[in-house]
Amino acid sequence: MAGVPGYEALAETLARRGVDVEAVKAALKRQRIETPSWGYGNSGTRFKVFPWPGAARNIYEKLADAAVVHRFTGVCPTVAIHIPWDKVEDWEGLRQYAASLGLQIGAVNPNLFQDDDYRLGSVCHPDPRVRRRAVEHMLECIEIAEKVGSSILSLWFADGTNYPGQDDFRARKHRMLEALSEVYRRMPPGMRMLIEYKFFEPAFYHTDLADWGMAYVIATHLGPQAQVLVDTGHHPQGTNIEHIVAFLLDEGRLGGFHFNNRKYADDDLIVGSINPFELFLIFNELVAAEQDPRTAETARAVAYMIDQSHNIEPKIEAMIQSVVNIQTAYAKALLVDRQRLREAQEAGDVLEAHRVLLEAYETDVRPLLAQVRLEMGLDPDPVAAFRRSGYAEKVARERGIAVAASGYPGAS
Amino acid sequence: MAGVPGYEALAETLARRGVDVEAVKAALKRQRIETPSWGYGNSGTRFKVFPWPGAARNIYEKLADAAVVHRFTGVCPTVAIHIPWDKVEDWEGLRQYAASLGLQIGAVNPNLFQDDDYRLGSVCHPDPRVRRRAVEHMLECIEIAEKVGSSILSLWFADGTNYPGQDDFRARKHRMLEALSEVYRRMPPGMRMLIEYKFFEPAFYHTDLADWGMAYVIATHLGPQAQVLVDTGHHPQGTNIEHIVAFLLDEGRLGGFHFNNRKYADDDLIVGSINPFELFLIFNELVAAEQDPRTAETARAVAYMIDQSHNIEPKIEAMIQSVVNIQTAYAKALLVDRQRLREAQEAGDVLEAHRVLLEAYETDVRPLLAQVRLEMGLDPDPVAAFRRSGYAEKVARERGIAVAASGYPGAS
Amino acid sequence: MAGVPGYEALAETLARRGVDVEAVKAALKRQRIETPSWGYGNSGTRFKVFPWPGAARNIYEKLADAAVVHRFTGVCPTVAIHIPWDKVEDWEGLRQYAASLGLQIGAVNPNLFQDDDYRLGSVCHPDPRVRRRAVEHMLECIEIAEKVGSSILSLWFADGTNYPGQDDFRARKHRMLEALSEVYRRMPPGMRMLIEYKFFEPAFYHTDLADWGMAYVIATHLGPQAQVLVDTGHHPQGTNIEHIVAFLLDEGRLGGFHFNNRKYADDDLIVGSINPFELFLIFNELVAAEQDPRTAETARAVAYMIDQSHNIEPKIEAMIQSVVNIQTAYAKALLVDRQRLREAQEAGDVLEAHRVLLEAYETDVRPLLAQVRLEMGLDPDPVAAFRRSGYAEKVARERGIAVAASGYPGAS
Amino acid sequence: MAGVPGYEALAETLARRGVDVEAVKAALKRQRIETPSWGYGNSGTRFKVFPWPGAARNIYEKLADAAVVHRFTGVCPTVAIHIPWDKVEDWEGLRQYAASLGLQIGAVNPNLFQDDDYRLGSVCHPDPRVRRRAVEHMLECIEIAEKVGSSILSLWFADGTNYPGQDDFRARKHRMLEALSEVYRRMPPGMRMLIEYKFFEPAFYHTDLADWGMAYVIATHLGPQAQVLVDTGHHPQGTNIEHIVAFLLDEGRLGGFHFNNRKYADDDLIVGSINPFELFLIFNELVAAEQDPRTAETARAVAYMIDQSHNIEPKIEAMIQSVVNIQTAYAKALLVDRQRLREAQEAGDVLEAHRVLLEAYETDVRPLLAQVRLEMGLDPDPVAAFRRSGYAEKVARERGIAVAASGYPGAS
């Protein structure tokens, strides 16, 4: 197989540094990243949704677009779905349609925030009727997950309050625990419940699961099939996310990621576009945990999912770019010389330890990723290949411009 | 006139402290607060708009609701409008309709963010055709302002970028200055252009007018009819807003406020609901500036406007509560013993100076405000009076539940 | 006993609202607030320590000053000590000296950050020798606590790193757990270990116990005698502290507070001076938990401690002001109509529930506190009484101006 | 001259992309970075100063260390001094000593925060006597600058307040303007006054120059020799610094930088160690401005200064690493394809424009920098060369461990 420009020189340099290049490439080929069905449709802010020509309008078009992302990247065989946005009559048919595109259905995400009933919360709502409705919806999602062959129930709660005094923090916590206990008991063996936390929005005074600690406490109260989901945009400014990742891995409670990037709040931009070093540091913890017997099992089961809102940019191209950015971070993390790192850390050589990370981070891994893609039978540059493919123009012609929905998909 | 319970005792206490209670009451009666037409319609977050029964559906209903707020508070005779949300054929008719309700039209707000053309900005857009459109819209708003008798053109730009490299910061600045120069030249004498800034959202990498400094620089380049508008929710966490207020007053460039409160980002909650002490400190600067010959003229011309998004609470009641909160802050600021404050400051007595503010802040001004309302011929408790009035139930019956729009009014 | 001006009218108003005023006063008389020995000495920022005339120079002078605070407030009978700053040869003698002043020794705080050995951490340090030293110091502090009759070991760790890669997050977590397990096992029955967390500073990349969740996990791994200590200045901007307080109360893991206030980082200003409403909301949770059988035991055992750095203001006066601010928040929280609050919450009446809190918060409780003091045989205005007492001038004369130490007491 | 491994391949790749590699190398050779005398001595946090073996104890040792940094990097010929920390009797002697080491004295920094007089501020202090003292000190610094051949007076004010009400914002602004006007008038032609701003610390309620806008307004009131100095650690979380840089360049008011990095507050870590992409984006604006006739003059006069606090790491090595990080960011910024960038921006191709930056940023410029150093007669790896040189061990032996000062150099 003809090499990629620059790859041979890079491989030699890495080999000289002691890197097992073949092992790195093998890891990169094994990596799997899940894309979200809702990332292919129109979305926006509370101020405006700018409709994109050809944006997918239903789950079939979303799967078709996801298949394109998988075709050009080779590492995105699963697609997260959101109920009821992606609800269909015939789940078996959907599963087969996905399979025909080379895809599987990934995490199932109940929607617990877009019904008029949920104005004051879902599982934390003061009215037991509304909580019942939320529980029933989650139970329905477990059924759907079983039908489509998914083993992940991914829960995000918009529950919270907007004004001091509006509701009782502790009562709401008890309501949530009661609701989730029922859902947890109904999960089949092998299914995991991933519990997402968020600092704020759409609730603006308090959010019932405001940080990883609250999600962790709920998960430990429920049992071992419950874990925490880290959305990289759901933290206060300055938070050291890689530290939280390492902490949760050590506790066996890191279940998965929603990847995206932000500069301000939950901006939902392309992962790695604002702070690529932070993404590298997160993957540095994941790679270290994969290689540590105490954490390897948890680390290998982590679900890597993208969750972004492409407000002004083309959706499919943004998704491919996101996958590339994640691969870049992972590739660099795989190049970290862990032996030298440990030695410098144990010697208390602060700057030398820091430079071991820098040495990996400064490496231009584009030739390595290109070579991996070539060896996987893919175009070495997935963005360029997609742009050349004419797919964007084709769907723009065929689908036209959808009537824009509200800021978030499905909002009305 | 029969007194309000507790008022006489309070008045005596204040008099003993040296407060000219009659002057304070007179100031409270003179205070004017503008409510926004869009605060009476449905609004929400990007995730969901929860429609409120009876929420106003058009400018006529909005004015009717604003008139109710004015009826119960006595200090809200003007209403800001937003074009095109509030656009009508017959502006003279609208003006008369407002007058028939005891209202006038206040600030005119062009919409420069909700058209498909504005995906990459309005006055900063790389395409001159889009910039032209934005300028024409602002010129139209000047005409509307003249027709409805308004002297304030209130400008908020959502312009910004989402990704590093997306556009050229300096080129965008020049485009904005060019556009605003044309608009500025077309303003009649006596009209003011208020330029709003915002830290972020809906743009998530950079906002063209990101802070007061950028709005100030643009205003000084334009001329004396241009001033800065401070939206209390548009700052980074921790920002000392009262300091910015004092600084702009000193430079003669504080034009007005958009009042609301936030705990996290631009949450647009009821003003004073999250941090009432901050609101008091802002009014403390305004009262001080009103009493200082160097700043009195600027201070007295400041436009006090509410700009909130009532996502889960009743809109009219929220607006009345907002007015009450502003009055509370202003009343307490009027009670500050400025002579003692100055003496403590000049003596470097840190805690004594601080306690002079606390002494005013800790005062329960509810009897004072109740008395002011009574003397103005109003019910001493505007919220209770409104709840008793049956108006909310009446409009809920008559108007029903509007089909919810997107997160922000007018979004589609 | 002659009443305080305004008290009778206030008591009548409160009684009309259904408040049991005698019960409120009894609660205020029972409240206990611990002051820290280090708050009486000079302290400052990294840039400069401004020495204060008469600032206490040793534990005997600190206790003398604390006794003055207790004399004027009546609610501060215990004093936290910091080892080795307050180390003496004769602990029994110190205990008796304190008793002679009407004081007891409160929480014992080991110093794990000011030795040259601790450059890279204490219990998380890569070198086992340093960890050993840290453990020995904590064991020594347990002994001291037993000698001085204290039942609280209060732990703050400055442990963290300044650069990505500097050390291994998970290894450090294991080191901490190992060290604290040994210390925990050595605590006598009835002693509690309070584990403090902090967002950042003095470590600037990661802090080993960065948030309440990390402190909570460590505490649950240790056992029921370990609880979390909340320092109100140790959170990211925007954090809803009262929510964390309620969450920890519900889990039975809230052990105590370090009270102070901040606008930016860990500013260590006078509690309640920047955001008094937040302090009220924290006490609102504490009062609610005291009255709830599920949480009453935890709530009543919470240790209320002040931890501030008086950089530019007189230390004793600042401490008295801090006590007053805490009393104010507690008094207002006691006035909340919990029955009406619950009804409004359960009815989903957002603004009515919010106003129940506002009604209590807006109340001027100064006459109530003055009356409580009078009934306790104290001057109704402790700050004024202290200023009149001449104590500040006396110690300034007697002690002079100490040679300023570094930013934090004991730093060299 | 023998090439650096990887350089030839890189040069070819860059040439193919259209980069003028010789011009890039020339620019890198011309770059000048000033190091601060205080970065070579011990420093720390308010909690502890960890003394470093061999840390410089006076201006002569600091210059010696700075000379070593210049010897290994080739781009650091000037050293900023701080008065009175670096005060000597014989300024001409100091100048000659510096020259003998191949150095010149750079910016002169008055100290306006470490005298007991400055507890409540310097130029904003309520007492005119203190303000006089501050002005005299700045005038003295102008004289020193003239004696040592420096053309930059670099001003940072710790002025601010800790409590609401403590002092009058507007009065303080007037005092500052009055003081700086006198200083400005005394500056000789060709000297520049750089005015630094800071969000907070050591003042914790308000800082008199809290943001770039306030520094800008003061500078414009003073005249063209006054400009703004951007310290990269002095902003609220989330601030888009590169935008501010571009804005100030466009206004002709960007005077210089204090480079460092932070994750939380003013952490003063090694520049580029926490967020290297942000540093690249800042240099991207500087390079663009250098190449734009409208801004070239301002851009070329920008003073690049390091201002860091090396708390736990070796000082000289940290300084060399800082220089390398700045060179890396500058080198990558020089590789940006500005023609393609402009085309993508004008076409509104959001992701393509973003990728033009990424293409430069992802490039591994280490071989390029190594080659530049080789061509300058330097070791290609300055950190390794320094570590090999034995200088650190030598000064540790000769100088020993200094008695640690307070957190900030010179604090007592």
Set down the secondary structure blueprint.
The structure is a homotetramer of 412-residue chains.
Chain A: H1 7-16, H2 21-30, E1 35-36, H3 59-73, E2 78-83, H4 91-100, E3 104-110, H5 128-148, E4 152-155, E5 160-161, H6 169-186, E6 192-196, E7 206-207, H7 212-222, E8 226-231, H8 241-250, E9 254-259, H9 276-290, H10 296-300, E10 303-306, H11 315-334, H12 338-346, H13 350-362, H14 366-375, H15 382-389, H16 391-399
Parallel strand pairs in A: 1-2, 2-3, 4-6, 6-8, 8-9, 9-10
Antiparallel strand pairs in A: 5-7
Domain Xylose isomerase-like TIM barrel (chains A, B, C, D): 89-267
GO biological process, one term (chains A, B, C, D): L-lyxose metabolic process
GO molecular function, one term (chains A, B, C, D): L-rhamnose isomerase activity
